[in-house]
Amino acid sequence: IVERQGDDVLTLRLRQAGIRATPEEYRIRQVGGAVMVSILAFVVGTIGLGPLLGLALAAVAFVGAAARTRAQVDRAIAERAEELRLQLATVDQLLALQLRAGAGPVQAMQRLVERGHGACIDECADVLRSIRAGLPEPDALRRAAQLTSEPAAARTFALFAAAAERGADLAGALLDLANDLRDARRDDLRATATKRRAAMLVPTIAILAPIMLLFIAAPI
Q1: For 121-177, how does the pLDDT look when each residue is reduced to its tens digit (9 = 90+)?
Q2: Distance CA 43, CA 59 (A)
Q3: What is the DSSP string of 125-163?
Q4: What is the spatial distance between Cα 50 and Cα 99, in angstroms, rounded to a whole number?
Q5: What is the rounded distance in angstroms from the CA atom of residue 220 to the CA atom of residue 214?
């Protein structure tokens, strides 16, 4: 009743959020938190407003707490996608350096997983675990491209899958992708800076405009 998403959809959302929990564990945590909040709301509402209003307040608190848990997952997915976007340019460049040094695609990924940490490294580690479990390299990479929440990460895994099947120039493609990501990040920063400069003018105008009007109206 509280969480009606299917197990497959919920498993994907939890993975994209970086939450290491099964759908059952997540639902139990969600219901448990909502029950605790509703009990507290019922006690407070009964003391201050009476039993009936306390019960109504408990129902509203239960629904709000359950919705808040879903919103936390959505926020975690967005934050993890942003983290992937920030790390991916550097990770692609490091992978390209390993490939230019003579390492194979999976070997380059393995070296990076052994030495690094972060959201991108976790995604690469999941690919390596799938390969060790018996999944062919192209299938494991395409599966990672389908599961990730960041399109640029999906492009990276798709490039690895193509290189594993057809032997393409993976290092050059990764460097081009890293440059594209840096250019996109630079454009985003410029757009954000422009918006913030415009937002900084609002309080200045709101404070100075009335004062200027007073000076103009004073002689009148």
Answers
A1: 888 998 999 999 988 888 898 888 888 888 888 989 988 888 887 766 788 888 888
A2: 12
A3: HHHHHHHHTT--HHHHHHHHHHH-S-HHHHHHHHHHHHH
A4: 70
A5: 10
Distance from C-alpha of 45 to C-alpha of 58, rounded to nearest angstrom: 8
Query: Which residue has 């929990």 as its token pair?
Result: 21
Q: What angle do CA 58, 24, 74 make, to 5 degrees?
A: 70
Q: Which two tokens stand for residue 207?
A: 């404070």
The token pair that represents 141 in the structure block: 């990479």
Token output for 108: 């380059």
Both tokens of 56, joined, read: 């109504």
Q: Roughly what angle, to the nearest 10 degrees, separates helices 51-100 and 105-115?
A: 120
Environment class of 75 (CB within 10 Å of its CB; exposed 0-12, middle 13-18, buried 19+): exposed
Q: Which two tokens stand for residue 109?
A: 């990924």
Contact between 106 and 137 (Cβ < 8 Å): yes
Which residue type is seen at 66? A
Measured at the CA of 150, the angle between CA 144 and CA 151, to 5 degrees, comes to: 85
For residue 194, give both structure tokens: 């422009």
